[in-house]
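Appendix B. Extra example for self-study. Work through it before the problem class; the solution is given directly after the inputs so you can check yourself.
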Amino acid sequence: MNTKISFQGVSKTFELKGGRFLALDRVDLDIADREFVTVVGPSGCGKSTLMGMAAGLVEPGTGRILLDGAPVTGPGPDRGVIFQQYALFPWLTVRKNVEFGLRLQPISAEERHRRAQHAIDLVGLTDFADALPKTLSGGMKQRCAIARAYAVGPQVLLMDEPFGALDALTRVQLQDQLLDTWSRERRTVMFITHDVDEAVYLANRVVVMAARPGRIHRIIDVDLPYPRTEEVRLSPEFSRIRNEVWHSVYHQAPAA
Amino acid sequence: MTAVSVTDPPPSPGRRLRRPGRTLVLNVVAVLAGLGAWTALSMSGITGLTGPVEVAARGVELVADGTLTNDMLASLRRVFTGFALGTLLAIPVGFLMGWYATARALIEPYVQFFRTIPPLAIIPLAILLMGIGETPKVFVIFLAAFLSSVVSTFQGVLDVDKTLINAARVLGASDRTIFLKVVVPASTPFIIVGMRIGLGAAWGTLVAAELIAAQEGLGYRMQQAQLYYDLPTIFVGLISIGVLGLIMDRLLLLAERRFTGWQERR
Ligand SMILES: Nc1ncnc2c1ncn2[C@@H]1O[C@H](COP(=O)(O)OP(=O)(O)O)[C@@H](O)[C@H]1O
Ligand SMILES: [Mg+2]
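Solution. Structure tokens for the complete assembly:
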């Protein structure tokens, strides 16, 4: 399997008034092409910082982050980012939001419309294409954000607690929709969550992080078949893995 | 994804239902009550206050001989020139200050300092430097409009949601695109609020500006009326200033609705 993103000995310190704070300590992680990796861990363990560096939004620390073997130097349309706060442009309709990134590419107007429509259909917002974000529910907003990221054809999706602000029911629906989208057009996904069920349900592998300093605690394989269905969610195998992840998130030995 | 049922409905529209009819009735009642109180007060003979009827009669007179229209046009011309120049300059300067920390550090001391000086206090200086023509009047209004809208614009740029900027950046937007396609639209509500404050400031400075040896204008007319103890004309002037100010503010409010209707209100 080809490695898509590779974190090699990545550390990050923040300079604070009271001194320096080690947010990430020598993180090594390889994510394979088209793999779905979820990252869980206690609040403040550096999940967002790790992803932010891969996105090119957080100043790099020490170590290397490689995308297809080349160091990440800044943000780019090869990596789509989904934020918890949706980050839709409120003055643009769903369609215009989705077209935002496409407009920055050297493609014709027809091509842009076609690709935007495709992404909108993909997330099931066809009937809301010309609605403003303020008229959408949280779940629909996040689907619009996913469409916007998908439209520019990134090879990697970086998602930082994208469903964290949604109610439990909507969250489960969006998980299914995301997997459905992902299985149709497979991308490499790095998905941060604080929800253990979500982490296991979505992933090929669950990365469990620990705090102070932020580091990788364990990586747990999820040997469950896709498509994941309710049957999978309720299976004993799922519970076994879920318990294992739960245990390593909530019963971490303190750092040596 | 269409295969999966989509059950989350859009949120319900406004939770508080407005009843425009009732509000309007209350508005009219309030105005009529005010007029009634004014009439009663003037008839009770306190300090020779004129009543609405006299004022209305004077208003008709002043309209008939063209004075009021002339004065209004003269005042409006000054306000608009000063206001237009003020906001036209305030918007780019505000963006500059919000976007470049260096520009902010260089400009902000001046803005904050001049903001503390009432425009009225600038008048003696303006007369000495610019003579007694239109220039000092327009300048003072310009200054008032500029200072109030520049602060609001640059605050608007500073307050642009950083995740929106990041969202644009990860889609491949350059700084230029981010500025034009994210920062400018995101700060429009602030700019329009700034324009409304600026217009209020400009209008408010008008009477003071027209102290400067004007030959016409609502402020000038009221100054003249004061010399002759002509209360009805003063009232006509005050009411005209109020009504024109209200109309201009409503127009900007319409622009605000038109350009910032996308905002989520809570
Ligand atoms: N820009 C920053 N400056 C200083 N400290 C930061 C900054 N960003 C994050 N941190 C700190 O680094 C740690 C990890 O943050 P974050 O990556 O957001 O954690 P997580 O997403 O896992 O909750 C936290 O303790 C946070 O306070
Ligand atoms: Mg986080």
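Self-check: Residues A 47-48, 160 surround magnesium ion (ligand 2) (CB under 6 Å). If your reasoning did not lead you there, revisit section 3.
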